[in-house]
Amino acid sequence: MCGIAALFAYHSDAPAVRSDELLAINNAMLRRGPDGGDHWVDNASRIGLAHRRLAIIDLSADAAQPMVIDALDGAKARYHITYNGEIYNFRALRSELESAGVNFTTQSDTEVLLRLYERFGAAMVERLRGMFALAIWDARAETLFLARDAFGIKPLYLADDGRTLRVASQVKALLAGGHAGQVGPDPAGHTGFFLFGSVPDPHTLYADIKALPAGTTLSINKGGARQETHFFDVRQSLIEASKGENDDLRELLLDSVRHHFVADVPVGLFLSAGLDSTTLTGLAAESQAGDIRTFTLGFEEFKNTPKDEVPLAEAVAAHYGTTHLTERIARRHFDDALPDILHAMDQPSVDGVNSYFVARVAANGGLKVALSGLGGDELFGGYDTFTQVPRLAGTLGAVPGIGCLGKAVRVVAGPLIARMMSPKYAGLLELGGTYGGAYLLRRGLFMPWELPHLMDPDMAREGWQTLQPMIRLNAEAAGIAAPQNKIRALEMAWYMRNQLLRDADWAGMAHSLEIRVPLVDPVLFSALASSLGGATSPTKRDMALTPAKPLPDAVLNRLKTGFFVPVERWAQEGAHGLRGWAGKVHAAQIG
């Protein structure tokens, strides 16, 4: 896990790349990579790469970045790379390349990436199993190649002023360079935040900074010509998956866990009382030799109450013989950490605070890498959205003209309804008849008609028109036959990508901790896609039954109560509820 930066003066009239700007961007990402930092600028000052290193695979100085290699045809210093992430199948890929006559000088996955690019070009991404954001410079072709992993686990942001392309792992890092974020706000980004509690890709709060979409590559050459390709899409994968028997769930999960333990440093696990993390712990205990380390975040406010997950998590740790560490926090710890939380949060989010604290527990315990159960609810249909949204869309969608009627009801009765209950009830008839609308009702923070009261009305209007949330949400579900898969696509492409994964990134990096997500894995997903949404679709319980040594009955039979932690209450109390907390976070991000 690292921070990367690149500057490419691709236009003939672009000013030379400056080392001081590159270093300012790179130094703003120090916490992403405290183990080292370096940069490189070519002799013509047209391209520069920088890197902050968190050393996890091949800890030697030989694996430092930016890395440069000679081409196999003898061309000196042809390929340069700066890369953030982990390639879990890099050893298999390395063996394949070695059998084709390629020699390696390091034990890193970084060098494997360069050789793969040399051999396969942009198509190399289709061979990768892992999480990654990367920039590769081909000196002979004078082309910069960018790529972001299939699910968007790792972030990559671009600022292009028409002459120079600026790239970094964080929005705030680009701002630190002094030449991005200058055009003004992105209305769609601000609108999206108030709608969903996170900023939807590819938008940010700034008009001139965009995210490279998940599962996408971008090549840009000298002069500015570019080619963008999309190599993975959740919705398309669910549509194209041929129905049939899938591989054994237990073996698929074990395979993912084994791959996610690939590292030259110890790897631990976040452990709560939920099925996702306990299942991963059980699978890790049987598949990994040596000591397994687990970490639990507890709360003084819940101690000795039924809401306290610590006793059950500790029982699971004892059950599987892990070396376990529990840390409890109280309200004062949240208050003390709040300034740092808002500083570390790269884009505004109403969530992620709990991830910040559990990452701190693991980092204080001496780890650089921890596995999280994030993604289990999306993959195995654990949220109530999987039942509520199809029921709502199916019932109201069958009523002709329900949307127009619902809008009239909302306009007339909305103010009265809002005084008595959630504003969402005012839009039930208007939005509930489509999957996109019903999903917005379930996941939305504020409703569309509330936006003019939260931000400048003209900005709200422009943001809505640019973002087109209803069109995008309905498009995400379109063409998918199974109702559960419609929700699966929506949850993975919106809530998981824009909020959960992004929160895990900034919260982990705040403590120089790499958070890995074995349940968000393209190989696992593709293997299960044929059965998802059907009669044999695996459930959370199916997942929980896969460890050879069964989970304790107290975990298996525990009722799902929803994920509530006191930090949510602490944040909302100080800001008068979740909506007030959203305003506080938003204000902190725009400074």
Structure description:
With 591 residues, the protein is α+β, with helices and mostly antiparallel strands. The protein folds into 3 domains: 2-232, Aminohydrolase, N-terminal nucleophile (Ntn) domain (Glutamine Phosphoribosylpyrophosphate, subunit 1, domain 1); 241-382 and 500-590, HUPs (Rossmann fold, 3-Layer(aba) Sandwich); 385-489, no CATH class. The chain is built from 25 helices and 17 strands. It has a 6-stranded antiparallel beta sheet. It has a 6-stranded antiparallel beta sheet with strand order 4-5-6-7-11-12, covered by helices on one side. The longest helix has 27 residues, at 483-509. It is globular.
What order do the helices and strands come in, and which of them pair?
Layout: E1 2-9, H1 19-27, E2 36-41, E3 47-53, E4 67-69, E5 79-87, H2 90-99, H3 109-120, E6 130-138, E7 143-148, E8 157-160, E9 164-168, H4 171-176, H5 187-196, E10 210-211, E11 216-221, E12 226-230, H6 234-240, H7 249-260, E13 267-270, H8 275-287, E14 293-299, H9 310-320, E15 323-329, H10 331-344, H11 353-364, E16 369-371, H12 376-380, H13 385-397, H14 402-420, H15 428-431, H16 435-443, H17 451-454, H18 457-467, H19 469-477, H20 483-509, E17 514-516, H21 522-528, H22 540-544, H23 553-556, H24 566-574, H25 578-590
Parallel strand pairs: 13-14, 13-16, 14-15, 16-17
Antiparallel strand pairs: 1-3, 1-9, 2-3, 4-5, 5-6, 6-7, 7-11, 8-9, 8-10, 11-12
